């Protein structure tokens, strides 16, 4: 959005961090972890350069994935997703973003709240929305962190609705 705002008609945040300038993804994930025991228990830090160096990635404890990411999702989808999970590289999580109003701020933003999300609890979602309000907020009732599994038809309906919102000009 900051680099190519002219190529983005609308941005839709679904079960995602929506950062403001000066924030890093880790800032918001710490906020989520502070309000959620699941996240703290599930995190496994990986040290690719030795334990005396900063972590290089975060992995999630597979035994806690259902409770953290898929608490409303069908078992077959959880099984498929669990085998596909990979560690999350740590350095990009640390980067504080520098977002301008002229570029990043010119892109229309929409947020879809996932109220049953244990990875990004609703209180954290609401705090992100409050600190950098999008054009419009939608709520996907009964959705966990993986609404494409837990509420696929309802998610599709909202995405189509957002796509049909006319341009502001």
UniProtKB/TrEMBL annotation:
GO terms for molecular function: methyl indole-3-acetate esterase activity; methyl jasmonate esterase activity; methyl salicylate esterase activity. GO terms for biological process: jasmonic acid metabolic process; salicylic acid metabolic process. Gene3D superfamilies: alpha/beta hydrolase. It comes from the Eukaryota. This is Methylesterase 11, chloroplastic. It comes from Punica granatum (Pomegranate).
